[in-house]
Amino acid sequence: MSDRPATDWEARFQASREPQVKVLEKLFAGIAAGARMLVVTPRIVDAAVCEIAPGAVMAAANLRQRLAGRHGADYACPVTTGIALRVVAERSYLRLQAGVEQVTPFWRALDPDSDLAGKLVCGREFLRRMRSAEAAPPRTGQ
To answer: What is the pTM of this model?
Structure first.
């Protein structure tokens, strides 16, 4: 058993911050100085993930590009986007475990083979199962 307290994913999701667009003064995460970079929040990542259609998936790079475009930035920060995506995923998974039926479909935006997927409580197999379930053709009468 760990001595570390459990992360309060709901509190991290609810934290009152606004997304910010910053002009980079120097190279950061492969993004050139002078570029306008969006620093995301879990709420805007959550909203974007909810827009991904059932059965579809979106690569992290495409999610960042979509978010940046919506906020007048050249790029979305890959670091804060990854953190926000983890907050969204962990919160949604906990809500599923608590019996909430409608949660953010984070499996649509998380590659099961990514490093981030390996850190999630739900595990990589959950992401694969959810993607597979959505990709399956709907069943009709028997």
So the answer is: 0.89
